[in-house]
Amino acid sequence: MEWQQIEYFIAVAQLQHMTNAAKELSLTQSALSRSISALEKELGVALFERSGRSLVLNRYGRIFLERAKLALMEIEKGKQEITNLINPSAGVISLSFLHMLGAQLIPSLLNSFRERYADIRFELHQSSNNELLTLISNNDCDFGITTPEFVNDSFHWHLMGKSELFLATPLNHRWVNLSSVNLEELREVPYVGLKTSCGLSFTINKLFEKKQIRPNTVFHADELDTVAGLVSAGFGVAILPKTLGLQNHPLVWLKVDEPECELTLGVVWKKNKELTPVSNIFLSFIREKYSTEC
Fold first, then answer.
1. CATH of 3-81, one of 3.40.50.300, 3.40.50.720, 1.10.10.10, 2.30.29.30
2. Does residue 161 sit in helix, strand or coil?
């Protein structure tokens, strides 16, 4: 069954005349008759009865017309929803981001964007690295903001920036008077780590691998806030970004002097996918705001 057959059927049912319906649809009468006959053949019943020159819906036709109108209405609603979503002046952008970015980076980014494009809305998803890339691969998300470890050739990548990572210790730790530490020293102290579901864990693990260090990890947490809380309670030390939310914990923040300890973040989106007008607006904004690409 083709969608045009439904439209043709509704036109004939409303006008009750094959010739008039053909003119309304800019079709030949024979083409319209063939379409209606094919529809009736597929349904297995006649939908009209002839009354002089008019066509009158029979019992089956009335049943089918009711459903056909509802189907047409739903299709039109779907078309309108899609138009609204991609409307460059008032569409919707689907954005996924790592959990650790929800307290500071994402609110700041969205606030800057909405100052310029107040009518564009966002559909937000907090995700792990793997979940984020799956959402984009399945076309359930337009963009993601994440670390680069798992970004492969299926995705485009635009660097947003790098932020320093610090070694966080409790206030009474023996290192609090140091200006900096070397990762080598972490072999000797209890360490609070992150589960692999947290995007930052991949960056930190690569730092340890680079130095061939296996830290004395006493606990793997799901979230940065949990790590900061455990460190402040004296459970151990941890490598963390110095975000506003984490600075609420009573911690000492020490620089890591070797190796370079940074968190890299960027925007990813799927290759070989045509971007909607509203998505192009967002991407242009990102490229303007974060002009350095890697």
1. 1.10.10.10
2. strand
Q: Burial level of 266, CB count in 10 A (0-12/13-18/19+)?
A: buried
DSSP assignment of 238-271, as one string?
A: EEEE--TTGGGS-EEEEEEEES--EEEEEEEEET
CA distance linking residue 10 with residue 4, whole number of Å: 10
Q: In 10 A of CB 107, how many CB atoms? A: 11
Q: What is the pLDDT of residues 181-229, one digit of tens each?
A: 999 899 889 999 999 878 789 899 989 998 899 999 999 998 899 999 9
CATH architecture for residues 162-263: 3-Layer(aba) Sandwich (3.40)
Say how far apart CA 207 and CA 198 lie, in whole Å. 16
Among 1, 14, 286, 28, smallest CA distance to 158 is for 286
Across the chain, mean pLDDT equals 90
92-160+265-289 shares its CATH topology with 162-263: yes
pTM to 2 decimals?
0.70
